[in-house]
Amino acid sequence: QVQLQESGPGLVKPSQTLSLTCTVSGGSITTNSYYWTWIRQPPGKGLEWIGYIGYSGDTYYRPSLKSRTSISRDTSKNQFTLELSSVTPEDTAVYYCARWSSDYNSYNVWGQGTQVTVSS
Predict the structure, then answer these.
(1) Does residue 22 contact residue 79 with C-beta atoms inside 8 Å?
(2) In this predicted structure, what is the pLDDT of residue 41?
(3) In this structure, are strands 34-41 and 18-25 parallel, antiparallel, or unpaired?
């Protein structure tokens, strides 16, 4: 059974870089057909897709966040990491990592989510 767990600081100062790691257990991040994704939900708003790193290492980002976003992976640790630079209070949200399956065309595994607040 695949499980995802987000980790990282819960408080980030404006203009700094937000960094979160998702640790995957029970399956490999290099397994075909899976895309390892970051999604967030600002307070009072809906889910917002941020970007993914695919099983082959390819990445794709939300266009409006692309200039500030980087998603990387460490296959030896079976982890993938989100970095979002130059954060503002508008980046305050619950951040989730999730697995997209291209075979099933759905997110079929989610982390529990982690609250990140941007504040001085």
Answers:
(1) yes
(2) 98
(3) unpaired
